Protein backbone atom coordinates (compact mmCIF):
# COMPACT_ATOMS: atom_id res chain seq x y z
CA UNK A 1 0.00 0.00 0.00
CA UNK A 2 1.32 3.43 -0.87
CA UNK A 3 0.77 6.26 1.55
CA UNK A 4 2.37 9.50 2.53
CA UNK A 5 4.40 9.29 5.71
CA UNK A 6 6.03 11.81 7.99
CA UNK A 7 9.12 9.64 8.43
CA UNK A 8 11.07 6.97 6.59
CA UNK A 9 14.43 5.37 7.25
CA UNK A 10 17.23 6.78 5.11
CA UNK A 11 20.53 5.97 6.90
CA UNK A 12 21.96 2.47 7.10
CA UNK A 13 22.71 2.71 10.83
CA UNK A 14 18.94 2.79 11.34
CA UNK A 15 18.60 -0.95 10.76
CA UNK A 16 21.46 -2.02 12.99
CA UNK A 17 22.08 -4.52 14.45
CA UNK A 18 22.19 -6.85 11.47
CA UNK A 19 23.33 -9.75 13.64
CA UNK A 20 22.62 -10.47 17.32
CA UNK A 21 25.61 -10.02 19.60
CA UNK A 22 24.44 -11.79 22.77
CA UNK A 23 23.37 -15.34 23.73
CA UNK A 24 25.11 -16.57 20.61
CA UNK A 25 25.89 -20.01 22.07
CA UNK A 26 22.19 -20.85 22.08
CA UNK A 27 21.86 -19.97 18.40
CA UNK A 28 25.09 -21.75 17.50
CA UNK A 29 23.92 -24.91 19.26
CA UNK A 30 20.72 -24.84 17.24
CA UNK A 31 22.70 -24.21 14.05
CA UNK A 32 25.00 -27.15 14.82
CA UNK A 33 22.01 -29.40 15.43
CA UNK A 34 20.51 -28.34 12.10
CA UNK A 35 23.76 -28.98 10.24
CA UNK A 36 24.28 -32.43 11.78
CA UNK A 37 20.71 -33.63 11.19
CA UNK A 38 20.73 -32.34 7.63
CA UNK A 39 23.97 -34.18 6.90
CA UNK A 40 22.33 -37.48 7.87
CA UNK A 41 19.18 -36.91 5.86
CA UNK A 42 18.70 -39.27 2.94
CA UNK A 43 21.51 -41.66 3.90
CA UNK A 44 20.84 -45.17 2.60
CA UNK A 45 18.34 -44.05 -0.04
CA UNK A 46 19.09 -44.32 -3.75
CA UNK A 47 19.74 -41.07 -5.60
CA UNK A 48 16.80 -41.63 -7.97
CA UNK A 49 14.46 -41.86 -4.99
CA UNK A 50 16.08 -38.71 -3.60
CA UNK A 51 15.36 -37.01 -6.94
CA UNK A 52 11.67 -37.99 -6.71
CA UNK A 53 11.47 -36.55 -3.19
CA UNK A 54 13.14 -33.35 -4.40
CA UNK A 55 10.47 -32.96 -7.09
CA UNK A 56 7.79 -33.29 -4.43
CA UNK A 57 9.49 -30.80 -2.10
CA UNK A 58 9.86 -28.31 -4.95
CA UNK A 59 6.09 -28.36 -5.48
CA UNK A 60 5.62 -28.00 -1.73
CA UNK A 61 7.95 -24.99 -1.67
CA UNK A 62 5.76 -23.32 -4.27
CA UNK A 63 2.49 -24.25 -2.61
CA UNK A 64 3.53 -23.07 0.85
CA UNK A 65 5.23 -19.84 -0.24
CA UNK A 66 2.16 -18.86 -2.24
CA UNK A 67 -0.10 -19.92 0.62
CA UNK A 68 1.70 -17.47 2.89
CA UNK A 69 0.70 -14.78 0.38
CA UNK A 70 -2.90 -16.04 0.22
CA UNK A 71 -2.47 -17.12 -3.42
CA UNK A 72 -2.11 -20.88 -3.30
CA UNK A 73 -3.87 -23.42 -5.47
CA UNK A 74 -4.62 -27.01 -4.52
CA UNK A 75 -1.61 -29.38 -4.76
CA UNK A 76 -3.54 -31.42 -7.33
CA UNK A 77 -3.80 -28.31 -9.52
CA UNK A 78 -0.04 -27.82 -9.28
CA UNK A 79 0.52 -31.44 -10.26
CA UNK A 80 -1.73 -30.99 -13.29
CA UNK A 81 -0.07 -27.72 -14.25
CA UNK A 82 3.31 -29.46 -14.26
CA UNK A 83 2.05 -31.47 -17.25
CA UNK A 84 0.48 -28.38 -18.88
CA UNK A 85 -3.07 -29.23 -17.78
CA UNK A 86 -4.53 -25.87 -16.78
CA UNK A 87 -8.00 -25.21 -15.42
CA UNK A 88 -10.69 -23.59 -17.54
CA UNK A 89 -11.49 -21.44 -14.50
CA UNK A 90 -9.52 -18.18 -14.97
CA UNK A 91 -8.61 -17.63 -11.32
CA UNK A 92 -7.54 -21.24 -10.78
CA UNK A 93 -5.49 -21.14 -13.99
CA UNK A 94 -3.79 -17.94 -12.81
CA UNK A 95 -2.86 -19.54 -9.48
CA UNK A 96 -1.53 -22.56 -11.37
CA UNK A 97 0.66 -20.29 -13.50
CA UNK A 98 1.99 -18.53 -10.39
CA UNK A 99 2.79 -21.90 -8.81
CA UNK A 100 4.68 -23.11 -11.87
CA UNK A 101 6.54 -19.81 -12.16
CA UNK A 102 7.74 -20.25 -8.57
CA UNK A 103 8.90 -23.81 -9.27
CA UNK A 104 10.76 -22.76 -12.43
CA UNK A 105 12.30 -19.74 -10.69
CA UNK A 106 13.61 -22.01 -7.96
CA UNK A 107 15.19 -24.28 -10.55
CA UNK A 108 16.80 -21.32 -12.31
CA UNK A 109 18.25 -19.91 -9.10
CA UNK A 110 19.85 -23.21 -8.21
CA UNK A 111 22.50 -22.48 -10.82
CA UNK A 112 24.10 -20.59 -7.90
CA UNK A 113 23.87 -23.61 -5.57
CA UNK A 114 27.53 -24.60 -6.03
CA UNK A 115 28.61 -21.25 -4.62
CA UNK A 116 28.84 -20.32 -0.95
CA UNK A 117 26.92 -17.80 1.13
CA UNK A 118 29.22 -15.08 -0.15
CA UNK A 119 27.24 -15.49 -3.39
CA UNK A 120 23.82 -16.80 -2.40
CA UNK A 121 23.22 -14.07 0.21
CA UNK A 122 24.18 -11.26 -2.17
CA UNK A 123 21.41 -8.75 -2.80
CA UNK A 124 21.96 -9.31 -6.52
CA UNK A 125 20.68 -12.86 -6.01
CA UNK A 126 17.61 -11.44 -4.25
CA UNK A 127 17.00 -9.25 -7.31
CA UNK A 128 17.58 -12.28 -9.54
CA UNK A 129 15.00 -14.20 -7.53
CA UNK A 130 12.40 -11.50 -8.08
CA UNK A 131 13.31 -11.34 -11.77
CA UNK A 132 13.24 -15.12 -12.20
CA UNK A 133 9.78 -15.37 -10.69
CA UNK A 134 7.91 -12.40 -12.15
CA UNK A 135 9.47 -12.49 -15.62
CA UNK A 136 7.69 -15.82 -16.05
CA UNK A 137 4.27 -14.26 -15.53
CA UNK A 138 2.23 -12.34 -18.07
CA UNK A 139 1.22 -8.83 -17.09
CA UNK A 140 -2.24 -9.80 -15.84
CA UNK A 141 -0.72 -12.40 -13.49
CA UNK A 142 1.63 -9.88 -11.90
CA UNK A 143 -0.88 -7.08 -11.45
CA UNK A 144 -1.71 -6.30 -7.83
CA UNK A 145 -5.23 -5.98 -6.44
CA UNK A 146 -4.92 -2.20 -6.65
CA UNK A 147 -3.92 -2.33 -10.32
CA UNK A 148 -0.17 -1.91 -9.96
CA UNK A 149 2.06 -3.95 -12.28
CA UNK A 150 4.98 -5.74 -10.62
CA UNK A 151 8.09 -5.16 -12.70
CA UNK A 152 10.45 -8.15 -12.53
CA UNK A 153 13.67 -7.41 -10.68
CA UNK A 154 12.99 -3.67 -10.37
CA UNK A 155 13.99 -1.95 -7.14
CA UNK A 156 11.09 0.26 -6.10
CA UNK A 157 11.15 3.96 -6.98
CA UNK A 158 8.55 5.16 -4.55
CA UNK A 159 7.95 5.15 -0.82
CA UNK A 160 5.61 2.63 0.75
CA UNK A 161 4.06 1.66 4.05
CA UNK A 162 3.64 -2.04 4.81
CA UNK A 163 1.23 -2.56 7.68
CA UNK A 164 2.76 -0.70 10.62
CA UNK A 165 6.22 -0.70 9.09
CA UNK A 166 7.76 2.16 7.12
CA UNK A 167 10.58 0.75 4.97
CA UNK A 168 13.50 2.96 3.91
CA UNK A 169 12.85 5.76 1.46
CA UNK A 170 13.20 4.45 -2.07
CA UNK A 171 16.36 6.38 -2.94
CA UNK A 172 18.25 4.81 -0.03
CA UNK A 173 17.31 1.18 -0.73
CA UNK A 174 20.56 0.44 -2.67
CA UNK A 175 22.61 1.62 0.31
CA UNK A 176 20.72 -0.68 2.68
CA UNK A 177 21.21 -3.61 0.31
CA UNK A 178 24.91 -2.84 0.02
CA UNK A 179 25.22 -2.86 3.82
CA UNK A 180 23.45 -6.26 3.97
CA UNK A 181 25.97 -7.62 1.47
CA UNK A 182 28.86 -6.43 3.64
CA UNK A 183 27.49 -8.22 6.71
CA UNK A 184 25.76 -11.36 5.36
CA UNK A 185 27.44 -12.33 2.09
CA UNK A 186 30.55 -13.90 3.59
CA UNK A 187 32.18 -17.29 3.21
CA UNK A 188 33.35 -19.23 6.22
CA UNK A 189 31.81 -21.06 9.14
CA UNK A 190 28.40 -22.42 8.10
CA UNK A 191 27.32 -22.39 11.74
CA UNK A 192 27.48 -18.59 11.65
CA UNK A 193 26.16 -18.71 8.11
CA UNK A 194 22.88 -20.27 9.21
CA UNK A 195 22.38 -17.39 11.66
CA UNK A 196 23.19 -14.94 8.85
CA UNK A 197 20.55 -16.60 6.63
CA UNK A 198 17.93 -16.06 9.33
CA UNK A 199 18.92 -12.43 9.85
CA UNK A 200 19.14 -11.68 6.13
CA UNK A 201 15.61 -13.05 5.67
CA UNK A 202 14.26 -10.61 8.26
CA UNK A 203 16.28 -7.57 7.28
CA UNK A 204 15.52 -8.04 3.56
CA UNK A 205 11.82 -8.02 4.41
CA UNK A 206 12.44 -4.90 6.51
CA UNK A 207 14.12 -3.10 3.58
CA UNK A 208 11.24 -4.13 1.27
CA UNK A 209 13.30 -3.51 -1.89
CA UNK A 210 10.49 -4.19 -4.39
CA UNK A 211 7.10 -2.62 -4.84
CA UNK A 212 5.54 -6.06 -4.35
CA UNK A 213 6.66 -9.69 -4.31
CA UNK A 214 9.21 -9.22 -1.53
CA UNK A 215 8.12 -12.24 0.51
CA UNK A 216 8.35 -14.69 -2.37
CA UNK A 217 11.71 -13.32 -3.52
CA UNK A 218 13.17 -13.48 -0.01
CA UNK A 219 11.94 -17.05 0.48
CA UNK A 220 13.47 -18.06 -2.85
CA UNK A 221 16.80 -16.64 -1.73
CA UNK A 222 16.50 -18.33 1.66
CA UNK A 223 15.83 -21.65 -0.10
CA UNK A 224 18.94 -21.17 -2.21
CA UNK A 225 21.12 -20.24 0.77
CA UNK A 226 19.89 -23.24 2.76
CA UNK A 227 20.22 -25.68 -0.15
CA UNK A 228 23.55 -27.15 1.04
CA UNK A 229 21.64 -28.20 4.18
CA UNK A 230 18.22 -29.07 2.81
CA UNK A 231 19.59 -30.90 -0.26
CA UNK A 232 16.09 -30.25 -1.57
CA UNK A 233 14.72 -32.79 0.92
CA UNK A 234 12.98 -30.53 3.41
CA UNK A 235 11.08 -27.30 3.02
CA UNK A 236 11.60 -24.16 5.10
CA UNK A 237 8.51 -22.72 3.41
CA UNK A 238 6.44 -25.55 4.88
CA UNK A 239 7.53 -24.59 8.38
CA UNK A 240 6.89 -20.89 7.80
CA UNK A 241 3.45 -21.47 6.25
CA UNK A 242 2.30 -23.90 8.93
CA UNK A 243 3.22 -21.24 11.49
CA UNK A 244 2.13 -18.28 9.39
CA UNK A 245 0.84 -16.08 12.22
CA UNK A 246 4.03 -16.59 14.23
CA UNK A 247 6.10 -15.99 11.11
CA UNK A 248 4.59 -12.58 10.58
CA UNK A 249 4.62 -11.79 14.30
CA UNK A 250 8.34 -12.51 14.72
CA UNK A 251 9.20 -10.67 11.50
CA UNK A 252 7.24 -7.66 12.68
CA UNK A 253 8.64 -7.73 16.21
CA UNK A 254 12.19 -7.62 14.84
CA UNK A 255 11.27 -4.33 13.12
CA UNK A 256 10.87 -2.77 16.57
CA UNK A 257 13.11 0.02 17.85
CA UNK A 258 15.59 -0.64 20.62
CA UNK A 259 13.90 -1.11 23.98
CA UNK A 260 16.23 0.59 26.47
CA UNK A 261 19.87 0.24 27.53
CA UNK A 262 19.74 -3.55 27.86
CA UNK A 263 18.59 -4.08 24.28
CA UNK A 264 21.84 -3.81 22.35
CA UNK A 265 23.41 -0.72 20.88
CA UNK A 266 21.70 -0.46 17.51
CA UNK A 267 18.67 1.51 16.42
CA UNK A 268 16.47 -1.61 16.27
CA UNK A 269 15.82 -4.19 18.96
CA UNK A 270 18.61 -6.75 19.29
CA UNK A 271 16.44 -8.84 21.60
CA UNK A 272 13.68 -9.08 18.98
CA UNK A 273 16.20 -9.97 16.25
CA UNK A 274 17.62 -12.73 18.48
CA UNK A 275 14.11 -14.04 19.12
CA UNK A 276 13.45 -14.11 15.37
CA UNK A 277 16.67 -16.10 14.81
CA UNK A 278 15.80 -18.48 17.65
CA UNK A 279 12.32 -19.07 16.19
CA UNK A 280 13.63 -19.45 12.63
CA UNK A 281 16.22 -22.05 13.67
CA UNK A 282 13.67 -23.97 15.72
CA UNK A 283 11.33 -24.12 12.72
CA UNK A 284 14.20 -25.33 10.51
CA UNK A 285 15.15 -28.01 13.03
CA UNK A 286 11.54 -29.13 13.30
CA UNK A 287 11.33 -29.51 9.54
CA UNK A 288 14.50 -31.55 9.14
CA UNK A 289 13.59 -33.74 12.15
CA UNK A 290 10.18 -34.42 10.67
CA UNK A 291 11.65 -35.35 7.29
CA UNK A 292 14.29 -37.53 8.96
CA UNK A 293 11.47 -39.50 10.56
CA UNK A 294 9.60 -39.73 7.25
CA UNK A 295 12.65 -41.12 5.45
CA UNK A 296 13.61 -43.64 8.12
CA UNK A 297 14.06 -46.92 6.24
CA UNK A 298 12.09 -49.10 8.65
CA UNK A 299 9.27 -46.56 8.77
CA UNK A 300 9.12 -46.41 4.98
CA UNK A 301 8.84 -50.18 4.71
CA UNK A 302 5.83 -50.07 7.04
CA UNK A 303 4.33 -47.16 5.12
CA UNK A 304 4.67 -48.95 1.77
CA UNK A 305 3.07 -52.02 3.29
CA UNK A 306 0.15 -50.01 4.70
CA UNK A 307 -0.37 -48.27 1.37
CA UNK A 308 -0.41 -51.45 -0.70
CA UNK A 309 -2.66 -53.31 1.75
CA UNK A 310 -5.15 -50.43 1.65
CA UNK A 311 -5.00 -50.04 -2.12
CA UNK A 312 -5.42 -53.79 -2.60
CA UNK A 313 -8.79 -53.57 -0.82
CA UNK A 314 -9.88 -50.90 -3.28
CA UNK A 315 -8.32 -52.21 -6.50
CA UNK A 316 -8.10 -55.90 -7.41
CA UNK A 317 -5.10 -55.24 -9.67
CA UNK A 318 -3.02 -54.04 -6.69
CA UNK A 319 -1.51 -56.99 -4.84
CA UNK A 320 0.54 -57.38 -1.66
CA UNK A 321 3.33 -58.99 -3.65
CA UNK A 322 4.25 -55.44 -4.70
CA UNK A 323 5.51 -54.52 -1.22
CA UNK A 324 9.03 -55.98 -1.34
CA UNK A 325 9.94 -54.90 -4.88
CA UNK A 326 8.63 -51.39 -4.12
CA UNK A 327 10.76 -51.18 -0.99
CA UNK A 328 13.72 -52.35 -3.05
CA UNK A 329 13.09 -49.51 -5.53
CA UNK A 330 12.99 -47.04 -2.64
CA UNK A 331 16.34 -47.98 -1.11
CA UNK A 332 18.28 -49.49 -4.04
CA UNK A 333 16.97 -47.60 -7.04
CA UNK A 334 15.64 -48.56 -10.48
CA UNK A 335 15.12 -52.14 -11.59
CA UNK A 336 14.77 -53.61 -15.02
CA UNK A 337 11.17 -54.55 -15.60
CA UNK A 338 11.96 -58.24 -15.68
CA UNK A 339 13.72 -58.00 -12.33
CA UNK A 340 10.75 -56.21 -10.78
CA UNK A 341 8.37 -58.84 -12.14
CA UNK A 342 10.55 -61.61 -10.77
CA UNK A 343 10.72 -60.04 -7.30
CA UNK A 344 6.93 -60.15 -6.98
CA UNK A 345 7.00 -63.97 -7.10
CA UNK A 346 3.89 -63.91 -9.28
CA UNK A 347 3.32 -65.49 -12.63
CA UNK A 348 4.39 -63.34 -15.54
CA UNK A 349 0.89 -62.27 -16.57
CA UNK A 350 -0.18 -61.34 -13.02
CA UNK A 351 3.13 -59.58 -12.37
CA UNK A 352 2.84 -57.54 -15.57
CA UNK A 353 -0.72 -56.51 -14.67
CA UNK A 354 0.47 -55.46 -11.22
CA UNK A 355 3.38 -53.41 -12.56
CA UNK A 356 1.17 -51.77 -15.18
CA UNK A 357 -1.29 -50.74 -12.48
CA UNK A 358 1.46 -49.38 -10.22
CA UNK A 359 2.67 -47.24 -13.13
CA UNK A 360 -0.89 -46.01 -13.69
CA UNK A 361 -1.10 -44.90 -10.05
CA UNK A 362 2.18 -42.99 -10.32
CA UNK A 363 3.82 -44.98 -7.51
CA UNK A 364 6.20 -46.43 -10.08
CA UNK A 365 7.47 -44.45 -13.04
CA UNK A 366 9.41 -45.24 -16.18
CA UNK A 367 10.54 -43.21 -19.19
CA UNK A 368 9.02 -45.71 -21.62
CA UNK A 369 7.75 -49.28 -21.76
CA UNK A 370 11.27 -50.70 -22.05
CA UNK A 371 13.04 -48.48 -19.49
CA UNK A 372 13.81 -49.46 -15.89
CA UNK A 373 11.19 -48.63 -13.28
CA UNK A 374 11.74 -46.45 -10.22
CA UNK A 375 9.94 -45.31 -7.09
CA UNK A 376 7.85 -42.12 -7.09
CA UNK A 377 5.63 -40.15 -4.73
CA UNK A 378 2.20 -39.45 -6.24
CA UNK A 379 -0.07 -37.18 -4.21
CA UNK A 380 -2.59 -39.99 -3.87
CA UNK A 381 -0.07 -42.05 -1.87
CA UNK A 382 1.43 -39.36 0.37
CA UNK A 383 -0.96 -39.79 3.29
CA UNK A 384 0.47 -43.32 3.63
CA UNK A 385 4.08 -42.87 2.52
CA UNK A 386 4.76 -39.62 4.38
CA UNK A 387 1.86 -38.97 6.77
CA UNK A 388 1.27 -35.26 7.51
CA UNK A 389 4.11 -34.09 5.27
CA UNK A 390 1.75 -32.48 2.76
CA UNK A 391 -1.73 -32.98 4.25
CA UNK A 392 -3.32 -30.47 1.90
CA UNK A 393 -2.68 -32.92 -0.94
CA UNK A 394 -5.18 -35.35 0.60
CA UNK A 395 -7.98 -32.78 0.88
CA UNK A 396 -10.84 -32.49 -1.56
CA UNK A 397 -10.00 -30.23 -4.48
CA UNK A 398 -12.93 -27.83 -4.87
CA UNK A 399 -11.11 -25.43 -7.21
The main pleated sheet reads as:
2 strands, antiparallel
- The number of E-state strands comes to 2
Helicity, as a percent range: 55-70%
Describe the strand arrangement of the main beta sheet, using strand numbers.
1-2
The CATH topology of the largest domain corresponds to Fic-like fold
Instruction: Encode the helix/strand succession as letters.
Output: HHHHHHHHHHHHHHHHEEH
The low-confidence runs, each spanning 5 or more residues with pLDDT under 50, are 1-6
Q: Quick one: CATH superfamily of the largest domain? A: Fido-like domain
Individual helix count: 17
Task: Give the C-alpha Rg.
Answer: 23 Å
User: How many domains comprise the coordinates?
Assistant: 2
Choose one word for the global shape: globular
Second CATH tier, the architecture of the largest domain = Orthogonal Bundle
- The secondary-structure class comes to mainly alpha
Overall pLDDT metric = 94
CATH class term of the largest domain: Mainly Alpha
Structure description:
The protein is mostly helical. It folds into 2 domains: 12-294, Fic-like fold (Orthogonal Bundle); 297-391, Arc Repressor Mutant, subunit A (Orthogonal Bundle). The chain has helices at 24-40, 47-68, 75-81, 90-109, 117-120, 123-134, 173-184, 190-207, 214-230, 236-242, 244-253, 270-294, 297-314, 323-332, 337-344, 348-361, 382-385; strands at 364-365, 374-375. The protein has a two-stranded antiparallel ribbon. The two termini are 29 Å apart.
Amino acid sequence: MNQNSSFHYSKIHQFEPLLPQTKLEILRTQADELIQKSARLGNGIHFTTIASIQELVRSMNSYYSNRIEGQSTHPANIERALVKDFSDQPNTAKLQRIAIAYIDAEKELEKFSSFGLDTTLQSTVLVNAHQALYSRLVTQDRTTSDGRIIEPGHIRHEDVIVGNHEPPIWSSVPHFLERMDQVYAKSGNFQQGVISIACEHQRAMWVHPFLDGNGRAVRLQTHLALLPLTKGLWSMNRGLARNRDSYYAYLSAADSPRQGDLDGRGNLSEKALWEWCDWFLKIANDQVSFMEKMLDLSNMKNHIEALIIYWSTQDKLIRREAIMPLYHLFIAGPLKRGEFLQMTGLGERSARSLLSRLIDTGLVKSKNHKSPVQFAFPLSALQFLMPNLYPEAATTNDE
